[in-house]
Design brief:
Blueprint: H1 3-34, E1 37-38, E2 48-49, H2 53-59, H3 62-93, H4 100-108, H5 115-126, H6 133-140, H7 148-151, H8 153-178, H9 182-190, H10 195-223, H11 229-232, H12 244-253, H13 258-286
Antiparallel strand pairs: 1-2
Length: about 290
């Protein structure tokens, strides 16, 4: 590619890049500005500059600290479930079995269901303490059904979010498995390596880039979970299922506290961007 071609390519991309930059930077700048104001829609016209008071208020609020703890639990649990189960399911689906295409379709299908619809299916058909499938199975085994959204609401949210992201991780890892070079595994098998040794020393290292990609998207997805929490628990009971995103909504936007909500949004943006850049540097260094 010549320098002239590169120059023409940059010139052609400039309008799109500039538009994308404006589309991102203007809302961000307005959010940062609003976060320094005492700005509530319940009392329009009373806006006042208060500096970092909004940040101090919610960073010292026990409800926010509790929502941050819930967010970390959600992200860690979803990550462990999706990566471990996703890898195992991808390996199983990579085997030559009867009906493999149908099984693959069934595994991947939940990813194409709207999160809110999936959440309501779990709540009313699977986890209902009286008429749900889990309650029926527990009663059949002589056990007491669990009232998931009263006794273990955060665990219920974790399972549903993991179910939503598991097909995505499985699809990425299955695609990577099917593109691996079989010669290395065949050579190792001829040298007497067991199935576990071939998986641990050959398959898993070769899957490393795709596993790291799945980790990245799973974490970002779990950090942004909102459309599952709202219809299921509304952040309750007693804010036990609030994450940082739902905290922003319930404690800020529903009470029309624009300044407070903007401050929470800025902190969430900083967390996500810091993680994205840090993780990208780690992945690029390892690759």
């Amino acid at each position: 590619m010549t320098k002239e071609t590169q120059r023409v390519g940059r010139l052609a991309l400039t309008p799109a890049v500039a538009l994308l930059f404006i589309w991102m930077i203007v809302p961000l700048a307005m959010t940062i500005y609003f976060s320094t104001l005492h700005y509530t829609l319940l009392n329009p016209g009373t806006e006042a500059f208060i500096g970092l008071d909004n940040y101090y208020y919610f960073l010292t609020d026990p409800a926010f600290l509790y929502s941050m703890r819930n967010t970390l639990l959600l992200v860690g649990s979803v990550l462990a479930i999706t990566i471990v189960l996703g890898t195992l399911i991808a390996i199983l689906l990579d085997q030559a079995v009867v009906g493999r295409s149908i099984v693959r379709l069934m595994v991947i299908a939940p990813f194409f269901i709207m999160p809110t619809v999936s959440a309501l299916v779990w709540k009313n058909l699977l986890m209902h303490p009286v008429s749900g499938l889990f309650a029926f199975l527990a009663t059949s085994l002589g056990l007491t059904p669990i009232d998931w959204f009263t006794d273990a609401p955060l665990l219920a949210i974790i399972l549903i979010v993991a179910w939503q992201w598991l097909p995505f991780a499985t699809l990425i890892l299955l695609t990577a498995l099917q593109s691996l070079d079989e010669e290395q595994k065949e050579a190792a098998e001829m040298d007497g390596a067991s199935a576990w040794q071939r998986f641990w020393h050959i398959t898993l290292p070769l899957l490393g880039p795709m596993i790291r990609l799945s980790v990245f998207f799973s974490i970002i997805g779990a950090l942004q979970v909102f459309d599952i929490i709202v219809p299921l628990t509304g952040g309750g009971p007693f804010e036990t299922t609030n994450t940082m995103v739902s905290f922003l909504y319930f404690f800020g936007l529903t009470r029309m506290r624009i300044g407070f909500s903007s401050a929470v949004g800025v902190v969430l943006f900083i967390i996500c961007v810091t993680f994205a850049f840090g993780y990208q540097r780690i992945v690029m260094r390892d690759d």
